[in-house]
Queue: 4 jobs
Job 1
Amino acid sequence: MVKDYGQINLHGSDPPRPIPFPLGTRSVAPRPVPFPSTPMTPPPRTRARRALIALLVSAIAIPSAAVAASGGAGVGPIASGAPSGGLDPTSVPVPSSPSKSSKGKWLRGVAVTEYWPVPESWFVGQLVSVPGLPGKHRVDWLYSAFGVSMQGEGIGLDGRIYHIASLGHAGWVTSDGRSTTPGSDGWSGGAPYWRAGGFWRNSAREVTYPLEIGGWSNGPGVKYVPLRGVTFAAGPSLPLKYYQSIAVDPSVIALGSRVYIPAYRADGHGGWFVAQDTGGAIIGRHVDVYRTPPAAATDPGQDLTDQRIYVIAPRH
């Protein structure tokens, strides 16, 4: 159990010790913003992937002081050659679009969304320690439906890539603290807001958490909900490449398939991708494009419907 004063115990059964700043002096009211999300169901290597953008309708309004404390809304320095924003600037020869001799098939009615390693600099929660990661990281970056638990990967304040290694034994809750699970028709209880643990409940039993600048995101916490079994690790969890890798439903598109998405033909790679990843909310005719983080947290990325894509299955 974490005993460091002012630090939250995210994994023990007992609530953390009081935080040494005036609680409840600042409150951030929830407001709807378009933000990417992923589900809880564990895909290969226990990665969580984001759900449809439209499913997530609740986030936090960040006060200007909190933005300043967080280092701004930008991505910040990114290590290991991880660029931010825009299409892939590569200048490699672009493959041609499918021809009549291509050994594949067209798939219609496909939804295309995007995901990326989410920057910690976009978040405002208190710094906490967690299993598997050095130092401390912002609690909302770790456990909210906008952070690493949902996206699978994130870019820390140090510019390095980190990922969730084990999802633990809890699902998701909405901003008002009700359980919700993903399905083909959306989330059962409403848009996910936080993992089902690692947060406090306020007097109305809604989710709240301490801010790095002091105070709480949604009123003072009165009861802590523990979260067990979640671990994180340094580095990426899969060898994905920006604008070259996609997440798919393997029952529709086999892993290892080459996929052509006409809407991305100007991305620097001719619109060709490799199906390398999966996600609990990537169900049926839905593909998720792995891309660089956008320039701002409020940019939801592309969300395309009724697309026509070309799939070349892998040879076995």
Job 2
Amino acid sequence: MPNGDRFPGCSIRNPSSKTPRWTSPEFFWKRDGMIGSASSPGARSAFSPGRVLRLLRLQNFFFGGWSLMVFAFLYLPIALLVVFSFNSSKLNIRWEGFSTKWYEALLTNKVLITAFENSLLVALFTTLLSTLLGTIGAWMLHRYRFPYQRALALLIFIPMVMPEVLMGVSLLVLFVQFLNLPLGFTTLVISHTTFCFPFVLVGVQARLQGLDPFLEEAAMDLGATPLKAFWKVILPYLMPAIVSGALMSFTLSLDEYIVSVFTTGAQSQTLPLKVYGMAKVGLNPQLNALSAIFIAATVVVAIISHTLARRKTP
């Protein structure tokens, strides 16, 4: 039989051709305990198109059902939360009618609005500092060599894996006993920046691994100073990693609860702290409305980002 011929009813090539051992039919027959050659009736029945088609359909049905259950587990509670944010019932146990009164009550709730403003202010400052420190740190670790560089890099990554309770307690001791700083916006921004900027640094470092070292040299050969070469050549190349790290820092800071418990003051309560305090008292329909607004804003931002990305793609 010439090389490249196929077995009847089978899409696997002749094992006599120069193909890897694991692609030959004998490998699968020996593995499954089947005896015979490619021309035997047992082999033809085992690899018949009908049986293969049934197996593929069963596989697709299994993985499709599993994917459906995973998506239902993830998104069904979110969908129910959005639906019940329009429920007129205060208990939110059963549906009693469509109403938008909880959104109106949310817009007049000064406590939640103030907490959201505090969270937004802290997240913006945290994002700015984390992006700046992470980008500079990643560039210095990539560009320069100095003693104990690996030890310093390891110390930078520790906040990413340290339990948040330990970090919150250690920062509280640092602020109160050693630095004598009053708990407030300053301590919140410092503590959030401590665990956010390593995420920016990791992303920028990964981007720097693919950087062509001759780009900076070419820019300097054309008359650019080291600072101008970094600003005009290196920084645009790093911009995707910087933006993704900034978005990650903003999300982590806006959503942070455990560290904020230990480092916040009475006048700097963030939104997660207020939401948790309201949830401990009982089910409040305003929380459903607040969550629905955040979900809608996230979906809108994701759609805009996807649309812009498609427009930039040639």
Job 3
Amino acid sequence: MFPSRTLCELSLPSILISCPRISVFHAAAARVGIGLSLQFRSRDAKSLISKMKMLRTIRGIFSIVLFFVLVHPTWARDERSIKDLAKALTKLAPDVDPAEAEQISVIAHTTARKLAKDYHVVLNPEFQAFLVNVGARKRGWCGHWAQDIGTHLKELKPRTLVLHWGVAYDHTSSENNCLVITARNQPFKDGIILDGWRRAGRLFWCPVIKDDEYELEQHYGHSGITAWKENMQWSAWLQDYEPVAQKPKKATNSKVKEVSSTRNERRSNDLSSQVIVP
């Protein structure tokens, strides 16, 4: 054992010898500390990345669950409404084509949902109309809904059902426009209303005479007098199409008549020539 000496008793050579050792020791310790800190930092980074991945996975699962919770009931309601409307349209008259009624029901429902996205509908239909009036939205009035849904229904060219345009409280602040579907040669009041505006994209439909929200003289309860009337100008626009099966039949019939007439002329010419020639 060397005797313990204070720093002042140390000679200059011993201090010079010990200083490099101390510095080397501190440098090595610093390197080890840096290495350990880097290892800890890398571990922290890996754990942070794994946590972020886990959060993203949880967020994706939550969004999927939320999608099914919110959207699935909507589609379920639409499916029931599509089937019920198709049945109601089929019952309008015995000669209504069930396939045609189903097509109209599907197109009306899906188009109303699509227009709600295209119009960027916010809150309720009244507020959407306000946004259109101030210029914040381009479309969203009740007439826009009826026109755009009617455009898609016209493309079906229905043969057993007729498209009509209905208006209630015309030229007032309570005006509403909708589509009305009837059977052939059926009065307007016996038809079924299709209104995409009233429920902001969820298609509303009911018989014209049973629309309690648009009745006249509502003093005490329901009057049973509908406020819906037919707009003949827009009904003419909706009905401005030719059924699918009419054009080819007319064309083929005319061709057959032309061919038969030419054959008859040839036969008459042949007979005349045979009579004249001895």
Job 4
Amino acid sequence: MSSTAPFHRIQLTQETLLTAIGDDWPPEQVEAALELLANSSGKFPSGVRRLPSDLVRAIQRERLIVAMLNAAAELGYLETNVQDVIDRAGVSRPTFYEHFSNKEDCFLAAFDTSAERLRKKVDSAACKGGEVWRDRVRFSLEALLRFASREPDTARTMVVEARAASAAAVRRRVELMDQFATCLESQARELLPSDRSQTATTASGIVGGVESLLYSRLCKQEYDQLESLLPSLMYFVVLPYEGHEAAGEAFAVNEIQSTKIGH
């Protein structure tokens, strides 16, 4: 039975679509598709002929993914059903099953595409830190917190609802955390003094702690406070690698920067 709670049909921006479907179609075609959706209450009119069929399929798939993220965040994975997703996406049930075999299949696709976007954002941000380990950590954390703050549905689905979903979703969540831990450890090994005693377990514990804090804040829907966590998270990450004094410096620097941004 479909949820009776009110919902809003999802709206995709041109930037979101271009990020999701790549460079296979000219921006003007994507813009035309969005205009067509906007003029048709958020769903393609039947018998669309002005657009390439492959583009329509790609857009429909992305709408279903975004709708799943929205429904899972709002209703919880266990309470979400296929009807909740297609209502928010503005597509038909046959269209859903053209792309996904069931609810879990759609959820896993939503998790995978979101995880890939998050990895790219964090990797790109880390590169801005150059050869300074602490700067790479700061830029990475900023990207993570900005992603969670600006895309709360996506963040809640990945951090909170993936725990309650299928065994496959739980494995994906663990794999994503392991990837971040491996990245943290490899950069520390490359950029910090070689006489340190930390191991890969240190990085895994740090990533687990960061994820646990995000889980708590996302459960309480404290989305507007997420980016203010940066100073505390910097202290938490730096402490086991560089000690209390360096961690205190990292906290103070980022506290000042956060205060300036807040004002």
